[in-house]
Amino acid sequence: MMFKERCLKTMSTHIHDRALRESPSKRTRNRRDVPPMSPPMKQPKSKKAKRSSEASSSKTREPTLGWLIRLMRRKNGREHEDNSKKIIDKELTATDVHPNNNRLSIPLSNIVELEFLNHEEKRAIEEDANKVNKEGVDAILVTSDLREFQVNLRLWDMRGSLQYNLVTGWNQVVEDCRLKKNRNNRLWSFHSNDKLYFDLVPLSVSDQ
């Protein structure tokens, strides 16, 4: 099977399987015409239980971070709707932070919201599929302290596993943000004027 066809089939399968697993309430999370249900009273969780719950929810869609909403409003205008996507919760590996690699790997199988690219970006990724020298999609990565880095998103077949990779400026992100192996980060994305942005957030500040 050609790489391009395999890529499209894999992404379609992930999206279909995730849609079947999602509950109706999750699929309609953005509908404003559905009144919220009153949940039953629960005992407050201990801090330890809360941390355990957060650790087990890496593939769920949490509310958009406050600072990320403010950033989108600054880029897009105050009334612009939230178009953020949760990409992945990632424990950085030695490969992710080694300067010889200059890449952050993002396995398709671990992505929470696969539909984070617009039409033009999808087409660019598809056209790259069978190229040896890939061009990818240029993007801007913003850290939680609002520093911006130029990066490039590419899709590679790495030993039979399809993975997105953030490349080009990733080493600068690692160096300036002092990223280390085993540190947990959350990656978000959004668009401003059709420009792709990524947001890298240490999980220790993910609720701010």
From TrEMBL:
The keyword Transcription applies. Gene3D superfamilies: DNA-binding pseudobarrel domain (2.40.330.10). Keywords: DNA-binding, Nucleus, Transcription, Transcription regulation. Transmembrane segments: none annotated. The keyword Ribonucleoprotein does not apply. Residues 1-25 have a biased composition (Basic and acidic residues). It is found in: Nucleus. One of its GO terms (cellular component) is nucleus. It comes from the Eukaryota. Coiled coil: none annotated. Residues 1-61 are annotated as: Disordered. InterPro entries: At2g31720-like (IPR005508), DNA-bd_pseudobarrel_sf (IPR015300). This is Predicted protein. GO terms for molecular function: DNA binding. PANTHER family: B3 DOMAIN PLANT PROTEIN-RELATED, GAMMA-GLIADIN B. It comes from Arabidopsis lyrata subsp. lyrata.
